[in-house]
Amino acid sequence: MFRFVLPVLAALLPVLPAAHAQEPAWPSRPITILNGFPSGAGTDIYARKLAEPLSQAFGVPVVVESRTGAGGNIASDLLAKARPDGYTFLLATAGTHAINAALYKSLPFDAFRDVTHIALLGDVPNVLLVNPQHSPGIRSCQDLIAAAKARPGVLNYSSTGNGASTHLSSAQLAHAAGLNVIHVPYRGQGPAMTALLTGEVTFFFNQSGPSIAAVQQGQARALAVSTPRRLPPLPEVGTVAEACDLPGFTSTTWYGLLAPPNLPAAIQERVSQEVIRIISQSAFRDWLVNAQGISPAEDSSPLAFRRIHEADLARWAEVVRQSGATVD
Length: 328
What we know:
Elements: H1 2-12, H2 16-19, E1 31-35, H3 42-58, E2 62-66, H4 73-81, E3 88-93, H5 94-103, E4 116-130, H6 141-150, E5 156-159, H7 165-177, E6 182-185, H8 189-197, E7 203-207, H9 208-216, E8 221-225, H10 240-243, E9 252-259, H11 265-280, H12 282-292, H13 302-323
Parallel strand pairs: 1-2, 1-3, 5-6, 5-7
Antiparallel strand pairs: 3-9, 4-7, 4-8, 4-9
Helix pairs in contact: 3-11, 5-13, 7-13
């Protein structure tokens, strides 16, 4: 027996190490950044802007894949269940990973525990817009408030979906000013903006990037911004606290890069370092601030991102409660 077994074992020995060989050094194949919202949304714009320099840094393609639906929950669930191998990331928002936790009665993932924090990408304001052609008499936030109070239950506003930041900013405004206005949710930024431009709705509290472009092209009039300070690309537009005479009003969200839970620390650190290096460059920061109206984070590190994320879960839960929004 040994005469036959030993030659077989000897023949197998060169093969055994290959069977247990380590996987190629990361990264060795394309990396995917998931986006939970339609093309043209702020997350889509940011993810594509980030993908090119990341591809150059890592030497592999970095592709953006849109997996839309359920307020970003489809993409978020894909991330939560993806292999933690460094090839799947998500351009997340406070909406997908803080607001939705309070908005939806149940989620197939945990918005805080089922992620690895990579980098905080910036604070994203909303801009209060009206259509100058369809609402020529509304030239200021005070005009809008007066018109809404004169016709309670008549004026309406669009949003990118029930419970989205574009909805909750308007709900916060209505609550603070004591307005009775009608919410009309749409599937994404494009249809919600189209509703404003065609006169289907009176106003739209849209994210800063698409809003700035619409204002600069003369398609929309900006009445106020949701930040504590004015935006550099719209210096003549007051904050809600100023323009609407609602002291203390603020309504901003964040963008952040997330990975699946249990991502190896070495990959987390390397991706975080590259992302922070890219978004800290003067050209990228200029694009963020002056083209998108996004404020770079003071601290983009994974630890700072984790702290802000955890605090926002409680903050947005209260806003959702005040708005009465819910999704089954």
